[in-house]
Amino acid sequence: MVSRYDMYAARYPLLPLKNVVIFPHNVVTLLVGRTRSIQAVEEAMSRDRRIVVVAHRDAAVDDPQPEDLYRVGTLTEIVSIEHQQGGNLQVALEGLSRVEIHQFDGPRPFYTVRAEPVPERLTLTPEVQALVRYIQDLARQYQESKNAFASDVMELVRTLTDPSHLADLLTTQLIRDAGQRQAFLENLDPLQRLEMLAVHLATDLDLASLEQRIKERVREQIDKNQREYFLREQLKAIHDELAGEGGNEMEALRQRIRERRLPQPVEERLLREVARLERMPTVSAEGTVARNYIDTLLSLPWTEETEDNLDLDRAEQVLDAEHFGLRHVKERIIEFLAVRKLTQGRGAVGGQILCLVGPPGVGKTSLGRSIATAMNRKMVRVSLGGVRDEAEIRGHRRTYIGAFPGRIIGAMKRAGTINPVVVLDEIDKMASDYRGDPAAAMLEVLDPEQNHAFNDHYLDMPYDLSKVLFIATANSLYAIPKPLRDRMEIIEIGGYTEHEKIEIGRRHLLPKQLESHGLRPDQIEIPEKVWLRIIRGYTREAGVRELERQLAAICRKVARDVVTGRKTKRVRLTLARLEDYLGPERYGLDLKIGESQVGVAIGLGTTEFGGELIPVEVVVMPGRGSLTITGRAGDIMQESARAALSYARSRTDALGIPPDFQEKHDLHIHLPEGAIPKDGPSAGITMATALISALTKHPVRSDIAMTGEITLRGRVLPIGGLKEKAIAAHRVGIRKLIAPEDNQRDLATLPEKIVAEMEFIWVENMDQVIAQAIDFGEEQAEIDPSLEERLGQSASDEGVTRISELSVEDAVAGA
Q1: DSSP state of 433
Q2: CB proximity list for 230: less than 8 A, separation 6 or greater
């Protein structure tokens, strides 16, 4: 009888298996369902129970051909067989040995193969024994780490000494991939198989150790989170006990944030900051910074806005009620509001940004307040005078101690809405130094294309300024950088006339001072003559601030008299009593009208405070032809003086001046009020007139003021600021003004009272100026006849327009 472990070449039925590789010494239970496989099993049972098992090369093939099967398989013995429902068989197979298939027989219902055992190459050496013990130790560690082996398997691993058997046993327990198991089956060197298993076990142990460390960290984190949650709940309970009805502070902050309905990025940022603050110690300095930041963001308006009132009739009523005069300015503001009304709701950007430019005290800031009242918006004022640090506009970064937002964000915080009227006061007074240029930072604020995402360094997030109405005020345009000026629409506000000042004083200034001093409106009466004396004798300004101070001085003295009982009834101010209240007059007329002087001409200039008279005095002295100019004249004005002298020298024959006068005489031009710097070309014809008067010994008419730039050929060029200069001349009682012909177009900008009361003489050249300004008197016949004829011709050609003979409407239309 042949033993079950006899190994010899013979024919055996073939059982192809999908994804199953059986090793020697291994018992496997299979469910056999294919007809061909069932017949192979039955054939083996009818013989010696032995059957060759081989794996598919491709598990997707259901009906394998010889080329679809591996050539190395396992000779097995059927241990048991059970019939299942549906005709299937449950078969238990025990691996006997590796076999190599040499031949496939057919064509039977199932394959039979000729196979013979494959001997293994192994010599038992100390190295092999050491490797066996190492594998057993690794298997023990693997079992302790993963508990992957059954107890009987682990016991067998500890007791086995046969390297081939140990390798096959561990392969069945550790290797799951059919391809890898087939490779182990085809490997006939047990030592090599053990080494591969050692690598596999060591790798799995490393992974298991890593998994264990990860699990421990996760467990620690879970424990930490649970501990923090527990402590947080305890802290919340403590806060609730300490705060009483106020509840937990952090929860109150979160509730405030959710109730504000903030934009999503802002809300997320605030919640993150609250979470950071909650984790900080109470005494931490960083906690104070975080809390201030949260409070700042919560105090800012993000969605709150007021509804605009763009009723033009109401706006006009508000402007008329709060401001007298300024007709052109009011019209421009009404036009501005009309445009905003038409663009409202169309997604248009907030329109132009206004810049009100004019002398101090003319009502620029109060105009901004009136616009806010007319539009039903809140108004905040941002003073920019003296600002020289960029951080004043953009804010400080939170990394600095004591950091705070810039002035723009501060204004929005005070306003409480996203569409206030922000008055940027004194925008021309900003400066720059090593800390940056605040005017450059203002570019983003005032640019409608950028201010929808204004970035304040303290907030560190975009803030929308596109709905803000910015109104800037300035005394002078020259100090505003051109890029900044280009972003604003300039509205120039000139000085007030005497009549306008009287009306402003009656309607606004006096009632305001009476109320602030506790007096009734009927306790002070000021006649118009007294108003005029106060304006002329005690003030010298384009606006009305000094006038308000004088009215306050009067009210203080009246209040003292009322309190002491000296006056109980109405106080009627008279010219005689005015000095008792205000002291002696501080100002008088610059020159006494009617007293013409040789070498003295009245010029006009403009400053940031409005128009000013610039008297020019010239004296001729024995000398060697030097020209001296005093009175803090600027470079341009000195060049105008030299041009005037060159013109006079070129016309010596026509003017009756000795040709060699400069060789024997020195000339001194002085501009009074020498402490005040003066510059500009508009005093050119004034200096030329004073020079010619001094050289010809004929006086200049003192009732005439003049302005205009002179060229070497005697042409009179246009100048700027005619309105302010005309108001200054009118203020001191001068009613005749010589001005360049090209400035006649500016007549429409002058107040009606000025146009009606003053005589404007439009000139194109110096001949016309001399004819009107210099009083030749009876000695005029001694002048060169050619000049007399030319001067007479200039006058007869109506180079002079007498505005006083026209109506106001005709004068404006003619301009």
Answers
A1: B
A2: none
What is residue 126's predicted lDDT score, i.e. its pLDDT?
A: 83
658 confidence band (pLDDT: 50, 70, 90): confident
What local confidence, expressed as pLDDT, does residue 243 receive? 52
User: How many residues make up the chain in this entry?
Assistant: 815
pLDDT per position as a tens digit, 622-656 = 888 888 888 888 888 888 889 988 888 888 888 88
Q: Is the pLDDT of residue 812 over 60?
A: no
CA-CA distance, 7 to 569, in Å (whole number)? 146
Q: 3-state DSSP call for residue 786?
A: helix
Instruction: Report CA 393 to chain centroid distance, whole Å.
Output: 10
CA torsion sign for 591, 592, 593, 597 is negative
CA distance 495 to 609: 8
Across 163-222, the runs of DSSP E, i.e. the strands, are: none
Contact predicate 340/310, CB 8 Å? yes
Q: How far apart are CA 735 and CA 758, in angstroms?
A: 5
Kindly give, in sequence order, each residue whose CB lies less than 8 Å from that of residue 726, ignoring residues fewer than 6 positions away. Answer: 611, 737, 750, 754, 758, 760
Query: What are the CA-CA distances from residue 652 to residues 290, 421, 783 (Å)?
Result: 82, 62, 11
H helix or E strand, kind and range, residue 424: strand 421-425
The answer to whether 641 touches 687, Cβ cutoff 8 Å, is: yes
Of 24-33, 139-148, 407-416, 688-697, minimum mean pLDDT range: 139-148
User: End-to-end distance of the chain based on CA atoms, in angstroms?
Assistant: 143
The whole-angstrom separation of Cα 748 and Cα 186 is: 112
For the chain, how big is the Rg over CA atoms in Å?
A: 54
Q: What is the pLDDT of residues 570-612, one digit of tens each?
A: 888 888 888 888 888 887 654 445 578 888 999 988 876 667 8
Q: Are strands 610-622 and 600-607 parallel, antiparallel or unpaired?
A: antiparallel
For residue 374, give both structure tokens.
């007319």
The C-alpha atoms of residue 89 and residue 91 are separated, in whole angstroms, by 6
The pair of structure tokens assigned to 437 is 């240029």
What's the angle, vertex CA 178, arms to CA 177 and CA 179, rounded to 5? 95
Catalytically active residues are 682, 725
Q: Beta strands 699-700 and 704-706: pairing type?
A: unpaired
Helix-helix angle 312-322:327-343, to 10 degrees: 150
Neighbours of 625 (CB within 10 A): 12
- Separation of alpha carbons 615 and 704, rounded Å: 11
User: Is 384 within 8 Å of 438 (Cβ atoms)?
Assistant: yes
**CA neighbor of 724 nearest in space, from 696, 743, 699:** 743
Distance CA 350, CA 339 (A): 10
For residue 798, the model assigns a pLDDT of 36
Average confidence score pLDDT of the chain: 81
Q: What element of type H or E holds 104?
A: strand 89-105
Show the CA angle centred on residue 601, arms to residues 643 and 604, nearest 5°. Answer: 80
